[in-house]
Amino acid sequence: MNIDEFIERSLGKWRSQRSAHHLAFHHFEEVTSEIEILSLDNHDARVTALCKANQVDPHLISSPFYMAWTGESDWDEDEVLTGSTVLVPVPDSENPTQGRLLREQGYAETVPAIGHYQLIEDGSFILRTKYDRATAEEKIWFATPNLRLRVSLIKTGDGKGVTTASFSSEIRSLDLSE
Q: Any idea where the domains of the chain sit in the sequence?
């Protein structure tokens, strides 16, 4: 599988159930979310702005996309978790199963971020992103075309300690009226 195929399989609306262990707080959290992943044109203003900000030639990118989410946590029932970000894969010219992922907003810290991805033989997408104070590692794979699974680790800045571990199951919303 290459990055274009992975993104194509990920497009759509997903309902997510995430279980997270916040080790530093000795707390377990359940989060339910609605996630929407939309394809973007390579010439979309948000895509070109992200490429410019990261000094990336727009001709090198592949399958940019937009992701938005809204969710609820049992940790703070009054808070609605919302956000969105533009993501731009930049495949490695020598190895198309690897590359960089430019993000308007990161996962572990809400700042622009550049992660490094790899697609392994079983079709799993692995992403590692280093931030100022943390490192995020994610693995996403498809159990079926409409069921994605994701595990995530948030590690300390030096990468030696784990602060959060989570597992998500994401089910594609199917419009039965079609």
A: 3-172
- Are 112 and 105 in contact by the 8 Å Cβ rule? The answer is yes
Tell the burial category of 143 from Cβ atoms under 10 Å away from its Cβ (0-12, 13-18, 19+). exposed
**Contact by Cβ (8 Å): 141, 120:** no
Q: Residue 79: its pLDDT value, please? A: 74
- Please give the Cα distance from 56 to 87 (Å, whole number): 13
DSSP-assigned letters across all residues of the chain? --HHHHHHHH-EEEEEEEEEEETTTTEEEEEEEEEEEEE--TT-HHHHHHHHHTT--GGG----EEEEEEEEESSSTTPEEEEEEEEEEEE-SS-TTEEEEEESS-SSSSS-EEEEEEE-TTS-EEEEEE-SSEEEEEEEEEEETTEEEEEEEEEETTSSSEEEEEEEEEEE---TT-
pLDDT value at position 76? 76
Please state, in angstroms and rounded to a whole number, the distance separating the CA atoms of residues 90 and 56.
Answer: 8
CATH code for residues 3-172: 2.40.128.20
Mean pLDDT by groups of 10 residues along the chain of 178 residues: 96 96 88 96 96 96 96 81 93 95 73 92 95 91 97 88 94 75
Give me 97's structure tokens.
């199963």
